Amino acid sequence: MNYIKIEASSLSNGSGWRVVLWVSGCNHCCENCQNPETWDINAGKEYTEEQKQKIMELLNHNYINGLTLSGGDPLHPHNREAILDLVKEVKNTYSDKDIWLYTGYEYEQIQDLAILDYVDYVVDGPYVDSLRDVSLAFKGSSNQRIIDVKKSKAENKIISVEL
Asked: Phi, psi (5° rounding) for residue 2?
């Protein structure tokens, strides 16, 4: 897996202060995407154990609420193994921190992925430029949903939230 950057603190990619990993690779190629430079799986730098440890260190602050995975698409097939490894370690080390994951896939397409056993919120669906709405918190277009993964799994139905 490659990554574009690791952001030490952000307030715009999920609730509270967050560490953000921006990965490379996206097959959705949404019209007017805010990050088209992330589409190529070879863009950026190679993600290694060193970057994972940097993320773990950045999360080790009381003011950090959690980790956000964005890009690109963390669920691009090329990224899934490394993302699963990361979310497992984050949850095992920082059970009090939440994990947000942005993906162009709809939840129904990915709900059975093992990665989601470790993710708290998924912002799903492709960005649709004709549905762009800057008043929405943490999403770019009105078709996208913020899904509470744990509640959705427990109730066996999609539970979306507005924050």
From this structure: -110, 160
Query: Is residue 63 classed as helix, strand or coil in its secondary structure?
Result: coil
94's tokens: 């920082």
pTM of the model: 0.96
pLDDT in tens, 27-40: 999 999 989 999 99
- Span between the terminal Cα atoms of the chain, in Å: 31
Query: Rounded distance, CA 68 to CA 87, Å?
Result: 10
| Average pLDDT score, the chain | 96
List own/partner pairs for 52-60 with CB under 8 A and 24 or more apart: 52/85, 52/86, 52/89, 54/6, 55/6, 55/19, 55/21, 55/86, 55/90, 56/89, 56/90, 56/93, 58/6, 58/8, 58/9, 58/19, 59/19, 59/90, 59/93, 59/94, 59/97, 60/94
